[in-house]
Amino acid sequence: MCGRTCLTLEPNEILKACRYKTSKFQKSPINQDDNKSEDLNDRKECCGHIKGQYIEPEWRSEFNCGRKYVPSFNIAPNDVTPVLISRDHFCDDGDSKAESSHRRLLIPMLWGLIPFWHKGDYSKHKLTTNNCRLERMLESKLYNNAFKRGHRCVVLCEGFYEWQTKSPERAVYLFYMPQKEKAIIHDRNTWEPEDINLLKMAGVFDVWQDEQGDKIYSYSIITYESNEIMSWLHHRMPAVLETEQQITDWLDFKNISNEEALAALRQPVSALEKHRVANLVNNARNKSNLCNKPIELIQSEKTTMNKLMSTWLNLRTPSASSKACKDNKDDAKNHNLLSTTDDNESEPENRNAKRRRFV
Q1: Per the confidence metrics, is the pTM higher than 0.85?
Q2: Are strands 104-111 and 215-225 parallel, antiparallel or unpaired?
Q3: Residues with catalytic annotation?
Q4: Which residue among 13, 113, 270, 310 has its CA within the 20 to 30 Å range from the CA of 66?
């Protein structure tokens, strides 16, 4: 299953991280000179892009009843995150295929699908929809309709957290895609948005509308039985899309049938990286930047901080022996002052006594 994710990029950075290559152009082997103008037109992708170029998705802002995407180290269900969908969802049937083919949009959506048929307050449907089981999706009243309408999406994150159900201590791990050699997923100083390999999960989405006509886009993450990568930790895992072809096929609901798309999902991811994190992520309100760091690093930093604090306190606070010595000196000083005062007070009496002896 997938119950918590990490995505710390701003919208403009996510666009850079989601750059993708347009469909490759193949020259016609016949009459190449005569068909130069035709080839040039064939090379055009939608919106004037050339096939074979790397381009960014388009950002499409949605009101979502006032809910906004906020980058976070600890994203939980009912939070809003950017999701990839096909541009075809916003194209009329009369639009030419070249205008929208394979184009991608980034849209902020609520995590936890709200079925379109729900009536009343969207937050009170009392349904657990953050995950959708692949085995039951076609039979589910919640997901079947959305899936058949081509509402396939790709959920983005830097990594997802998973708890070890087969251990009494409930250890937590962050799973993420393999990165470039020098890129460390939990250290933002080691990578740029265009270099990061985001983790992409297959999902289904729906559009709910309230009585005033305001819409909320929401999604569920598809899960299936874990393979050897995660079976030691949990019996369920998200449907990770590992290649660009998988992503393209999953989003292209007009040309790739539901049966073909589902068949592609049944190819489990072959490689994921992981490290154990602290139980800070147990509380969804904890958004600390320590959430995605390895637990060994946190413990090391904590030990260092404790040593520094101890050293600082020793410098600021006098030791017990020096304090006792100071107290003794103060007592002696006070005793001398008292003795001097007593002597001064007794001097007049002594003088009077001496005078009486001589009278």
Answers
A1: no
A2: parallel
A3: 2, 162
A4: 13
